[in-house]
Amino acid sequence: MRTFSDRALAIQPTGVRKMFDLAGDDVISFGLGEPDFQPPLVAINAFHQAMLDGRNKYTTTAGLPALREKIAQTWSSYQEGMTDQNVCMTMSGTNALLNLFMTLINPGENILLPEPYFPLYGPDATLVGGESKYYPCLFENEFIPKISDLESLVDDKTVAILYNFPSNPTGGTLDETQRDDLLEFAKKHDLWIISDEVYDRIVFDEEHVSFMGTGYDKLMVVNSFSKTFAMTGWRIGYIISTNLEAMKQVIKIQYYISACSNDAMQYAVLEAIEKANDYPSMMAEEFKQRCSLIVDRLNSMPGVQCHKPKGAIYVFPKVNVPNMTSEEVALEILKDGVLCSPGSAFGPSGEGHLRFAYTISQEDIARGMDKVEATLKRLNSA
Ligand SMILES: Cc1ncc(COP(=O)(O)O)c(C=O)c1O
């Protein structure tokens, strides 16, 4: 009997959620990736005020021109000359991604996706009838893809490559040379680049290197205020591109997804950009310290090797416990009161890894690491 659409039946809940749903309230949680900060107070006040001022209506589909103009200006160090026309507001990065998959991929075409991955990419491809081709970003290569792997996957049905940096789940990021190698690959095969840069303001020692400003016309950048201003629950993000023809298509699709973004909230985000522009750096400074703490602790544990990420809010250590999968290890750790995500939730290359989001205080990180250490010692001596 036919029940639901093939596309609904083809996708599954993500493994990160599965673990989260198993955990009680009293665990130390390195589970979900959301900053443990509140949005800047000026933005909360502006949100409230905008509602009182009657900003409770539809806006144009692409969003408030003043906000879009401001966002374009925030990119001027990468790319001069962009205006409100280059930006479309969305109801989150998640929404921006789905929009771009709908805008760029036909049924039967394929997209190259990083693996380990942010778990929405593959299902998004499925939802638009496309195929996902995964390229590995391995620990051995500091989580950076190899062009030879990409060359072996690309075919005449490949229309796009998605890259995410700093990465969820690995924390890996690109330097300029690595970015240019990816760019050359995309140019050679005439591919769209979907660049997921939602962690661009949470970087530690070096400035974020963007695809924006490289002059490539088939580039669509995804961004979000979820991480930049700790607004995960507000659901607001955007797509930015120098390609105005592509932006017209994006805006047309966005109308059918959500008509527009939230009216009052767009004023609040504008206020945050204008009055709390140093907020992301303040958070990044704290994340940097937590990152050092957790990396040092993990590297001192039996069977664990951990790279030190240059950005985002995750570590993705290799955790070797003989004869146990990453899911089994994560479940043992959960029994001892700590929630983390098994690497396998982010794709096959994630097997043998765990993901820890360091979105809790340094004291809680230290307490959590004590417990993880005890679990790993127990498992390794069993
Ligand atoms: C790599 C990456 N892209 C996009 C998103 C989507 O963010 P949001 O939908 O909250 O804007 C996330 C959220 O965790 C993410 O990690």
Under CATH, the topology of the largest domain can be stated as Aspartate Aminotransferase, domain 2
Main beta sheet strand tally, sense and closure: 7 strands, mixed
Give the termini separation: 49 Å
Going by CATH, the homologous superfamily of the largest domain would be Type I PLP-dependent aspartate aminotransferase-like (Major domain)
Order of helix and strand elements from N to C terminus: HHEHHEHEHEHEHEEHEHHHEEEHEEEH
Q: If helices are DSSP runs of H or I spanning 4 or more residues, what is the number of helices?
A: 14
The CATH C-level name of the largest domain is Alpha Beta
DSSP, total strands: 14
Shape: globular
Provide the domain count. 2
Gyration radius, to the nearest Å? 21 Å
Which small-molecule ligands are present, each listed once?
Answer: pyridoxal-5'-phosphate
CATH-level-2 architecture of the largest domain: 3-Layer(aba) Sandwich
Percent helix: 40-55%
| Binned strand content | 5-15%
Short description:
With 382 residues, the protein is α/β, with parallel strands linked by helices. 41% of the residues lie in helices and 14% in strands.
